[in-house]
Amino acid sequence: MEVLLCFVELDASYAGNENGRLARIGIPEQGLRSPPKQRGAMNHFVESEAARAEHAARWLEANTPPHFLADGAQFREPGLDEVRQWERALYEAGLAAVSWPVEYGGQGGTMLGHLAVSKEIGRRALPESVNSIGKEIVGAILLGLGNEVQKCTYLPRIARMDDIWSQAFSEPQAGSDLAAVTTTARADGADWRISGQKIWTSYADRASFCLLLARTGDPVQRYKNLTLIIVPLDAPGITVRPIRQIDGSAEFNEVFFDDVVVPMSGTVGEIGRGWQGAMSVLTVERATNRMYRGWRFENEVRHLYAVAGHDGVDFQRKIAGFAIDARIVQRYAEEIAARVCDDRPLETLGNLMKLHWSEAHQRFASFAIETLGSERPGEPATVATARRRFEAIYWRSRSETLIAGTSEVQRSIIADRELRLARAA
Amino acid sequence: MTSPGHLTDELAEVSRSAAAVAAACEGLDARAVLALFAQAGLLGAGAPGSCGGLDLPLEFDAAIIDAIAPKLLDDPVLDAMLAARYCPDVDVARALVDGRVLVASSFDGALTATAAGADVIVTGTARDVAHGVSADFLLAPVDLDGRELLAVIDLGDKVTRRPVLDGLDPERRAAHIVVKGQTLPPHRVADAAADWRGDGLLLSARWLLAHASLCLGMTADFVSSRQQFGQPLSVFQSVRFALASAAEELRSLDLLASPAGPRADRCAAYCYAAQIVPPVIERCMHLHGGMGYTEEVPLHAHLRRARARILAISTEPAFAEIVDAMIAH
Questions:
Q1: Contact assignment for B235 to A423 by CB distance below 8 Å
Q2: Could you report the per-residue pLDDT of A64-78, keeping only the tens digit for each?
Q3: Which of B111, B110, B112, B92 is nearest to B102 (CA)?
Q4: At residue A102, what are phi and psi to the nearest 5 degrees?
Q5: Which residues of A touch B13 (CB under 8 A)?
Q6: Of the given ranges (A170-179, B14-23, B55-64), which has the lowest mean pLDDT?
Q7: What pLDDT sits at residue A328?
Q8: Known active-site residue A285
Q9: Which of A184, A215, B29, B272 has its CA 20 to 30 A from that of B206?
Q10: Nearest CA distance, A233 vs chain B (angstrom)
Q11: Does the predicted TM-score (pTM) go above 0.90?
Q12: Measuring CA to CA, how many Å separate A277 from each of A137, A144, A270, B13, B225?
């Protein structure tokens, strides 16, 4: 809550200002405008979000299984069911779906409330969510584009971890060039008949549903005739093939659709306007998904510093540099949350944050494994634990400049929208 | 610059006022520049009312720095605004606000003090002080038995100046200042060194950001208009990506160096600025091709200023503070 607290302090610092003094440097006689009308609301946010953060900290302190913490002596990789139960417990404690409306199973809080909880989660070396796509991407799309039946049906189940979701957008020939999607959905009475292939479909092997981006009309118009459709993954004609990744896990999948029939009532938003929906997903994904990342990054830097046993100037500089990178990611998250709450445009903040985080985190992961080196006889158990953690982070980090738009995609967007560089005629 | 919404209009006013004064300063020396800024009421933006200042928050100093960077006037103005905000001696602070004195600053903390009754006696060498050749006073931290105080040192008393041959930025007229046992009365020292340094680091980060942003803007315009192989340079992906990376770094710095941000971010803001700003400007020079290597394009002047300031304010203590504050506890 540093940002808002600072705003309050700033207002207080103005209490003694007199208008005449401002006129001396060219500011009109009426001086500073009155503080904004929402000031009371901002104070309310500070109080309520501080309370939310305190509740989160206390609950996590009391309820986190010791073997969940990757920087702890008792760490043991939790299984899927354990993490699922854990996430359900988080929800029941009011620490998930924080910003969703109460009527759809949420806590009725704000994005700043979500951030307050995310900070506390990020500060601890907890396992990654097994349903972040459901909670942070599909949930956001359904809230924005879904109809009332879809919201009431699916959102509470996502929040409670009854259903895990995946996102079926990318295809073998439609990665960064997402508008090249060829998986088709053909109208057949009250149903869609779907054929094609998706890839990089995270969690499809364990998910109940996927949100599919399919072509529902003429492919010549690349950005038109794309539609978002809810597809139950147990529907006949679907084959899921897990792809083993370099970090040893198999979260990614290929999903094959062979004349799969699903009801048209599962269409999210307007038929043929799925591209706009997909873009809103990516905006959300880059800007608000996993808002805890900056605090988790800081947790990792602290962990490495604690076990590395170095105190040379060069090591300190590098560690401080990574602490700065973590702080930058945190500042982006704080700015994004504040803008969402104030209903101000996010512009390219999501792209900037994603680019900074993924590139810096990758550098950090390489530095961590180089610092810890290989196993040495008689080394403390804490070092061995850290090495396991950072090796896993290192492998996983290789995906971070690819997921949710590669670094090259982010730079292209920044060049266009931030710098407005001239393009080819 | 990120700023609370209700300040935007006032900051814009101050910014316009500073830009107008800066435009009138071309060709003037540091003292004349300070006099013009004082006349416009800008040097005392953050100084206490008791010194004739306006007691405004740091956002206003930052807005002034953003506005004057294009004219390369910033060194004396930045240091004067910061000194006016913290100067323990009310008379010197008043003279600063009125533009009657030139006060240099040293951040390196190499001066020591011993107690002599209520007074302190200061000795040591402040290295590479911008405008140290001609300044009237030096604002610097002094170590008194492990306690850091902020001191105002009279450069006309028991002081030797050794001009620095500054190949990076000759206009700074820097000097090493050797202080040989100058006695300071109580009103010349204050327990404000940490806050002064923190604000100084933040303003320096914004100062570096302003220079780099200007260079990036110039370069974006240049590559969008310069035609090679029958199309603008900006069409080429290597050019677009190089500038997009620079834009990302500067936006990150903008967020980190927000005057409204937590004080704990100030060391981080300066260290990050010191790390990214010279390479950003160098990249801009490179993308200007041969013209970037000439004095006809002013990029070199911004790089000189940036490099010289970073050399004068070491990042080592700030890095150590970041580890202590953010990581080690």
A1: yes
A2: 999 999 999 899 999
A3: B92
A4: -60, -40
A5: 25-28
A6: A170-179
A7: 98
A8: yes
A9: B29
A10: 39
A11: no
A12: 11, 9, 9, 41, 35
Q: What is the DSSP letter of A251?
A: -
What are the CB-based long-range contacts (under 8 Å, 24+) for B294-297?
A: B297/B218
Residue type, A72: G
Comparing alpha-carbon positions, the chain B residue that sits nearest to A29 is: B10
Give the type of residue at A77.
E
Q: Do A411 and B42 touch (CB under 8 A)?
A: no
Interface test with A, best of B97, B319, B324 (most A CBs within 10 A): B319
Helix (H, G, I), strand (E, B) or coil at B93: helix
- Which tens digits make up the pLDDT trace of B58-112? 999 999 998 888 777 666 899 999 999 999 999 999 999 999 999 999 988 789 9
Contact (Cβ atoms closer than 8 angstroms) between residue B302 and residue B284: no
Classify burial at B13, counting beta carbons within 10 Å of its beta carbon; exposed 0-12, middle 13-18, buried 19 or more: middle
Are A313 and B316 within 8 A, CB to CB?
A: yes
Q: Which of B39, B221, B252 would you mutate first to test chain A, the one with the most A CBs within 10 A?
A: B252
Cα–Cα distance measured from residue B154 to residue B8, given in angstroms and rounded to the nearest whole number: 39
pLDDT in tens, A304-326: 999 998 778 899 999 999 999 99
Mean pLDDT of A156-183: 91
Contact of B168 with B300, CB cutoff 8 Å: no
What is the DSSP secondary-structure string of B234-248? GGSHHHHHHHHHHHH
What pLDDT, on a 0 to 100 scale, did the predictor assign at position A42?
A: 34
For B157-212, the pLDDT digits (tens) are 999 999 987 777 777 788 999 999 999 999 999 999 999 999 999 999 999 999 99
Catalytic entry in A171, A285, A298, A300:
A285
Both tokens of B88, joined, read: 């323990």
pLDDT, mean of residues A251-264:
94
Per the CB < 8 Å rule, is A35 touching B244?
no
What CA–CA distances, in Å, run from B248 to A22, A99, A178, B300?
35, 28, 24, 22
Contact call for residues B61 and B124 (beta carbons, < 8 A): no
